[in-house]
Amino acid sequence: MTLIQKYFRGQFITPILLSLGALSLLAILTQSLSTIDLVIENRQSAGVFLYITILTLPQLLSIIMPLAVFMAMLYALNRLNVDSELVVSKAAGISPWQIAIPALHIATYAMIAHLIINLVIQPYSFRERRKAFLKISTDVASRMIKVGEFRKISDGITVYISKVQPSGLMQDILIYDENNAEAPVTYMAESGQISSVDGATKFSLFNGTINFINTDNTMNITEFTSYSIDLTKALATDPVLNLKASDRYIHELLNLPPGAYQDKAQKEIFQAEGHMRLATPLYNIALVLLALAFLVRGEYQKLGYGRKIALAATLGFTIRLFGFVLASAAETSPALNIAQYCLPLIVSIFAIWFLLNPNRAKSIFKIRRHSKSQMSGQALQ
Looking at residues 234-238, what average pLDDT do you find? Predict the structure, then answer.
């Protein structure tokens, strides 16, 4: 790599890092809005919220990386054009392909990083995220506690708690048990605490009363200093970790034995997910080549490159959006899996051909200038 190519590479790296960081931060803020409701509702700590948010980052990076690289490349190439650095380089005998090599090096690094995220980091982080959600859903205290509100924790059991101390001790407790419709029971206690030992969940109440109606319609009130209620059956949850397509590694998506799928639809969803993870890294190279085709090839324009950038951005975002559509459609039409690879490859081939074919590029721009001159002539007439 020559000195000028190393200079171009340095000009490309900084905008890419800034673009990737900015888009990642925006994506995290958007994703955290849905996560924070779950965490607050289940009375989890800020550490749990931060942990779940970090585990979401690999998938967000996988989605935004091709677009971040593309946007940064458009910005860097436009700045080099405006400062006439590309014009001087081409006048010094450097070909468009030599200018493209540093950008393609960075695009290749991005593709490799994207592939590692898709094949290793994302499924690992999503499994850990799924485990965290399962732990939250099976957290007995978080399901029961809603300070100052009557909370129905299961069929037939309603709990009210007025205050919870940092130690976990609850105060002013009321439990209404109507599992026996003929003789519902009300428990009232000054304090209490939940404990889980060997899979058994108990609610220990202190200094309270047990109230129920006798068969002769008289109130029965029994005082106690300590009393335990077994809530194991009432709070039973499914502890099984059910993995979705996004939680699985690539071999689990594409190479599972036929009997491992629940049905044909699940098999098609898994295969579409697997091919999507292998195909999406190709967009890093395809979109960079698209930016190079628009802003490296062609003549210097004194009035700027706004139209070229707008056209390139529109085309690039449309291509990426169509990639998402193909990935979604492949879940019900497996024949479209091959199209997930074809789209970025076709874009790459066309962009490379355009970069390496100066005669064709010149003819395109001549046709454009000729059409503009005709339109201006007609306007004068």
Answer: 56
pTM for this entry = 0.71
- Strand 185-197 relative to strand 170-177, pairing: antiparallel
Measured between alpha carbons, how far apart are the two ends of the chain, in Å?
54
Retrieve residue 198's tokens.
């060997």
Short-list 280, 270, 213, 336, CA closest to 58: 280
With 0-12 CB in 10 A as exposed, 13-18 as middle and 19+ as buried, what is 224?
Answer: middle
CB 234 within 8 A of CB 157: yes
Residues 148-166: pLDDT tens digits?
788 777 777 888 888 877 6
User: What is the DSSP pairing of strand 219-230 with strand 200-213?
Assistant: antiparallel
154: helix, coil or strand?
A: strand
Q: Check if the beta carbon of residue 175 is closer than 8 Å to that of residue 227.
A: no
Distance of alpha carbon 84 from alpha carbon 87, whole angstroms? 5
Structure tokens at 255: 């190479």
Delimit the domains of the chain by residue range: 3-137+245-369, 144-230
Average pLDDT over residues 294-309: 75
Neighbours of 18 (CB within 10 A): 13
